[in-house]
Structure prediction request, 96 residues.
Amino acid sequence: MVRAGHVPFDFGLERDRAAVGAVLGGAVQRTIDDSKVMLSAIVSYIGQNDPGPGYYKFATELGLLPNTATADDKLAFWARQVKAVHERYARPVGRP
Prediction:
């Protein structure tokens, strides 16, 4: 985005973190009916190896993850979503 002349996000600011969350949420809302997966699963939270609390909250709001999910349930859900995103959107080997 910066190369295109846009101001970069400052993840130290709540408003910029919220803006990124809104962009990711919009991408999910536009694609989930067709893909049946949360495209945002491949984006990790700052300094972590998973997508963060907003992802799981959104998954619960979408009815994809029960609100009683344990940390292990969330990790398993996320792993399935990452796999499904790659299966749905990855280019076949040898195709541009």
